[in-house]
Amino acid sequence: MQGFLRRRTPYTILPTPLPAETGSSALNDLYFTDSPTQDAVSVMDACLHNLYDVPRAKHIFEQLRSEGRGDTFLDARVYNSLIDAYLKMVSAPTTQDREMWLNSAWELYNGMEEGREKAHPTANTYALMLLAYLRFHPDSMQAGDAAVRCGAETHDPESMLRHIIEHQIPVSLVVADRAFQSSEEANEVIRLLSRAAVNMGLAKVVNELGMAESLGRQGLDPLEDVPEAIPVMKPKKPSINVIHSEDGSVVDIDVSESPEIETEIPFNLDTLRKHLSQVVFARRVMPDDVAARQKLLEDSVYDVAVKQMEHQAKMLEDLGLDNQRGLKHVDLQTWMWAWHQKLQVRLAAEIQNLVEEEHRLGGEYLYMAQRSPSSNVAYSDKVKHALSPFLTLLKPEKLSLITILELMNLQGTGGVSDGMKTARALLGVGRAVELEHKAQMCKKNNIAIPQSQFARADTSIFTRLGYRDLQARRVAARKYMEDAEDWTSDWSQLVRVKVGGFLVDCLMDVATVTRSLADAKGEEVYSEEQPAFFHSYEYVRGHKLGVIKLNPVVAERMARDRIKTTLHPRHLPMLIKPKPWLGPDQGGYLFNKTAAMRFKDSVEQLNYLRHASAAGNLELIYASLDVLGSTPWKINRGIFEIVLSVWNSGKRMCKIPPIVSDLPEPERPENYDTDQHARSIFLQRHKLYSQQKANNHSDRCSVNYKIEIARAFLGDTIYMPHNVDFRGRAYPVPPHLSHIGDDLSRGLLLFGEGKPLGERGFWWLKVHLANLYGFDKGSFDERIAFVEQHLEDIYDSVDHPLDGRMWWTKADDPWQCLATCMEIKAAIDSGDPHSYECSLPIHQDGTCNGLQHYAALGGDAQGAAQVNLAVTDRPSDVYTFVADMVEERLREDLAKGNKQARLLIGKVARKVVKQTVMTTVYGVTFIGARAQIEKQLAARGDIPAEECWEASAYLAKHVLGSIGDLFRGAKDIQLWLTSCARLIAKSIPAERVPNACGVVEEKKRGRAAAKKSPEARLKMEQMTSVVWTTPLGLPIVQPYRTTKRKQIMTGLQTVFISDPNQPSSVNSMKQATAFPPNFIHSLDATHMMLTALECRAQGLTFASVHDSYWTHAGDIDKMSVIIRDTFIALHSSDVLNKLHEEFRERYKGYKVPIAALRGTPALKKALALARVNSDEVSRVAGNDAPEKEPELALSEGEDVEAGSAEEVEDAPKKRRALPRKPKAAPEDEQDPSEDGFYTGRFVDLLDVLPDVPQKGDFDVKTIKKSLYFFS
């Protein structure tokens, strides 16, 4: 492993994107396709689906091809989709010109075969053209009356077989291709090719075809002669007619009984039989497919949702509770069913009207908008006329369900109480429609799922042979999956918003609920029908934000009712091991498309990921995700039953919120109207009360999701597919219930398999309990003693969890503590604890892991001692150390009579400062530190709410001051990283320097661009992101750019969205300040992945939550050795020097404007390099103070990231330089302290890139002997 990590990491280097304001180039278009082109391709895809509008798709394709745009999208799969559609048009009964469509198919194929097209034929291409010959060629015996005379050059089977062999495509892949919809046609093609092979003397091909034919014969169906089992029947309920009076009271009940006793299958059993019939069908089609049940789960989610809602509504209707009189008994499913019934009818009518309108307008579609400055309005208008191809991809019934379920899932997100942000809702619904369409395409051909692509057991994946073997297996599996799936195009943000806006607008028109007002006696007085959803605006940190809100009665039911109906399979664990990761969008769930990396609106990151994957640089990343996803889990039934009991009681307990908030409402003071201070305090307290009340509801909805998912998977072995964020940190894809969740989520989960504890495992189980309880800073012997002293409490916790001493509820992590108590008691009661098979995950957590990496990078002995890298008798606790330092400062201030010190003395516990200390090395600002401390002070409950803000500001100053000198080594590296990032973000490629200086006249889409000032031109050209490569080959692109949004009009609201296909200039401040934490996160992600791969190689079960590594208790000692070995291997690979070398290679030739260096130590060197005389150097350098802290290294006029419509962040205001009068002095007399002196002067980035800080003398190998490094 150490040799592998010391190798030169292969880099993925792509060109820097060009500014959108300056037009484009052929190279830029290849990597950064614009949104109009992507929209055109997606419209073409939608028009091809079910032959919706093939002429329109053909026209778009020919324009894209003739203009040479869209080359990124137009691969062989697109050509094959067009050929397939053309051939289907030949057979379509409504087609007028069959010859034209057949000619088009053959011409397209000939272009591919002769090299005139950029795409080359694949197995699918030859399968389609063999079908064309079989069905329509006059020489084909099967064509008969369907034969069509073709003007284009055609090919017979012998000619095509020759080309197949030339392209080295296995003939068996051709005859097994998805193009063949019937076995008769496949057999006929096999006979044609066999005859051609005989004529050509190709005995090997004849044998291959003969084998393919024999394998194609279906075996006997094992269920063919097995009769069906007679289902359990129950007496059918008599028809009940409830008669109401005018006031709503029940007058009579008419029960009509049949003379003969009728029976029916119980609903649940009937549904089960229908689903099992699909499983039987799956076994007949794919007898070796063990994934049938998972496919059923993903395939039938919307059908099951419909059945459940319909059944619930029918039950209520039979009882006469389907109207407003039964409001108290109506549940969420019944409302959703009523909305679905109305919405599907409305959608069918609206979509039909839309289709007719498009045809009436003469087929004006998206791509026809001319790409010119005057066409922006016309382009936006034409988008709405291009909606029908997308809305007809799915049936109205499915569109209706997707819209309802997505909105219900989004409620409470984005910090909006009982609602959601409009932009997020529209994008979410549009994205869900796109994903469901892609899922249907995946399901269409019943593709067998490849198994894990790990190398042979006798070969390490860290060797060259093992790595190449891993890559070859993945490439082969990916090619198989791509060839077997139908092509689909990605949608742009604009299309998603338009589709989502159309659907949500229709839902809000038809979805209603009935609300009633009761008097003091509880009797209904008034009732009215109200919208279930309404749109409004809220102000978030001074920004006006469009939101969609739920009717209060709907929000209340979300917190009470069972809501598993609203869950999509992509939100759930899997029943089988996830599909191995084969590419950036191939892996995880079987049908539902999942990305290997989660990032927001960064086409640059996506391009880097795709190119790195194609180059074979991501094999270990994919393998790591496969390891994490293949870990089996199960629900802890013992914990679940207790959780369910607490939930149903409606009481607050161990972070399970009560059904109704139990927080007392602040009392209005008597002097409210006369005392301004008293009124201010009351308003603050009442605002906090309202927020806590809203949070209680949101928290209860979150817990409801967890309980429903756990209940659904009781008794099953489940798996968590994983992907990574843009820094490489791994996360489970299911968002509601996974081991990365809170204490409740972790307490509900066990490993799917148990292992004997052994002597050391039982010892680690006790240590684990002490850690969970909060006694984690004592030595191991002290932790063991702590557990043994509390054995009676442990037994009482298990035997009387809800009516005993409740010792477990006082733990830091109560639900995990209770689960561990259960395992300890079960092990002791078994009579042989060492043989007891335990499934509980045991954790090994790093000590402030970011500081551990900084200490290892810098060889910082002092820092290493604080975070347990050094050998010690007991664990060091840096958080307690800082808390004690702060307390000492408070005592000094108390002696001076400070009011805040008096309030806080004795209350600065370890927990108060922990998060701030942990994030200090990640670049936390004073504002962030204050917010973290305020949250901890408020949680204590012994500090008045109105005092928390001021107290937290006072305390944050002391906390940051106390840790300033403690981690000097980390600060030096952080400053170096920030300085490098700032220079990179300010740099531009050498070829763009003339453009930045205004020497080259910019043209945008054929016209001269608007004149810009020198500063504006330079800012526009700063497009360079900070990019680096992790030791495992993952390219990481920082996505921070200035925000540019365009206004989109929808039927619901006007929303502002960003266009990821038009990169804007970088946010240089955010690029600089975010680089240190992102780089450290990429290192801890690498360490985790190395540990995961090594654990798999040694047969250990492994799971992780970033810097917390989990395995069975009996395997902790083995994993501890692996953790240390992988950390040593990582930090023995000269990480910082390799990063410096990568920067020098990646940014070779980039230029930095000298103006950007003002206020930095690099200015003097830059001026010297720019041949400024020595007097000027001294004078200018003397006028500019060097930067002191990374976050303060801002030049005048530097931008900060603008707040978005979706996530508004606090940011410092832009500093404005005072205007200066221009001077007419010649350049050689110009004062270098003036702004104009720097204009047009550049220096090579590599010349001013700072050197790596000198490393200390701490030897990272020392951690082998450290007991508490991870513990």
From TrEMBL:
Residues 1213-1223 have a biased composition (Basic residues). Keywords: DNA-directed RNA polymerase, Mitochondrion, Nucleotidyltransferase, Transcription, Transferase, Transit peptide. InterPro entries: DNA-dir_RNA_pol_helix_hairp_sf, DNA-dir_Rpol_C_phage-type, DNA-dir_Rpol_phage-type, DNA/RNA_pol_sf, RNA_POL_N_sf, RPOL_N, TPR-like_helical_dom_sf. Its EC number is 2.7.7.6. PROSITE patterns: RNA_POL_PHAGE_1, RNA_POL_PHAGE_2. It catalyses: RNA(n) + a ribonucleoside 5'-triphosphate = RNA(n+1) + diphosphate. Residues 1196-1209 have a biased composition (Acidic residues). GO terms for molecular function: DNA-directed RNA polymerase activity; mitochondrial promoter sequence-specific DNA binding. The keyword Transit peptide applies. Residues 292-630 form the DNA-directed RNA polymerase N-terminal domain. Residues 1178-1238 are annotated as: Disordered. SMART domains: RPOL_N. It comes from the Eukaryota. It is an enzyme of class 2 (transferase). It is found in: Mitochondrion. The keyword Nucleotidyltransferase applies. GO terms for cellular component: mitochondrial DNA-directed RNA polymerase complex. GO terms for biological process: mitochondrial transcription. DNA-dependent RNA polymerase catalyzes the transcription of DNA into RNA using the four ribonucleoside triphosphates as substrates. Belongs to the phage and mitochondrial RNA polymerase family. This is DNA-directed RNA polymerase. It comes from Obba rivulosa.
